[in-house]
Amino acid sequence: MRTIIVLGGAGAMGQIIVQDLADTAKDCKIIIGDFNIQGNERVQELLKRPNVEAEKVDIKDEANLVALLKKGQCVVNSTPYYFNVDVMKAALKAGCSYLDLGGLYHTTMKQLPLHAEFEKAGLVAVVGTGAAPGTTNLLAAAACKELDQVETIDIACGSRDFTESTHPFYPPYMLDTIFDEYTKDAMVFENGVAEGRNPLAMQKVIDFPEPVGKQSAIFTLHSEVATLPMTYKDKGVKNVYFRLALPQDFHEKLKLFVELGFGKPEAIETAEGKFHPRKFLAHMIAQIPYVKASVDDCEILRVDVKGSKNGEDRHYVMLETAHADKKRNISAGDLNTGVPPSIVAQMIVDGTIKHKGVVAPEIAVDPELFFKELEKRGCSVKKVVNEAVAT
């Protein structure tokens, strides 16, 4: 039986990936690889599925990790992005293909040089297969294939949550990643040059379709800006941007925390001793009682691609919309991020993806096949051609 390992499968996002694999890859064995398995109620529920197992693993123990990866044909790495390179090297030793949810640009750039080793081993590593990066890359690919020349790829992610929360500041995903997106210089590719910019220095209002509507977006550090300029170099791409639009209220609170210094990853000295601002804030957030309401949100990915075909200017707007899956109690944001790695992992183990080496999703994955799988899960994709869309 083909086996897919979900590393970090007991985590919030890993559980979504495992659930989708259990629902849609019933001819595969799914192994949850995580340190935190015992006492995890959600994991215990997932283990009731006939094709789901779990094994305790310490990803910092290479021998332990390699032993687990030898049991699978593919590993979905849903651990924090700074472990990506180490997990890839373990996958090479284990003879296991690999995919992850992204590397916040700089880690992705460290992963790409492993291409020759994966190619020689007859394995594939698809880097960045969540919503963004991932689906965003494939939306861009679907538009770029229609063009002779590509000038600009402008990506934005926006969302709106309709649930009423009693929690004053509950992060929609990993707090470390959010703070990195708001504090590290955002890489932009402009006029053929990659450069870093202050993420909060330049905001732009993006007009997403309803029900998200207009949202204030900032440049953030993202892997699309690492791979798309390489992929479409021959088509002359000049500009690639990624912008993030978190819900406005959360965005304003997050900006305040950053300004107060809570986004700093290093320890700071106080009269009471040293403490880590991020860890302290995460601890305080966890102290506030929080009962997750029934899911009711929407996330929209918007990719504007400008270029030319047969000498005529073209402007494509690619839109992907995800609504909360109330039946499976999965929020739109979690669905959008957790479903793509499940789809790509299945494409790897069933041989649909034939590439070897370290490749970006826009190279490895057929957009049309991918979009069909998204639509089976209630996510819609729309292409607007040369139509006036507010930006």
The chain-level structural class is: alpha/beta
Note the main sheet. 7 strands, parallel
Here the CATH topology of the largest domain equals Dihydrodipicolinate Reductase, domain 2
Q: What gyration radius follows from the Cα positions, in whole Å? A: 20 Å
Count the E strands: 18
How would you portray this structure in words?
This protein is an alpha/beta fold. The protein has two domains: 2-130 and 336-372, 3-Layer(aba) Sandwich (Rossmann fold), CATH 3.40.50; 135-332 and 377-385, 2-Layer Sandwich (Dihydrodipicolinate Reductase, domain 2), CATH 3.30.360. The chain is built from 14 helices and 18 strands. The strands form four sheets. It has a seven-stranded parallel sheet with strand order 3-2-1-4-5-6-17, with helices on both faces. Strands 10-11-12-7-15-16-18 form a seven-stranded mixed sheet. Helix 1 links the parallel strand 1 (2-7) and strand 2 (28-34). Helix 1 crosses helix 12 (332-349) and helix 3 crosses helix 4. The longest helix has 18 residues, at 332-349. It starts with a strand and ends in a 6-residue tail after the last strand. The relative contact order is 0.16. The mean pLDDT is 93.
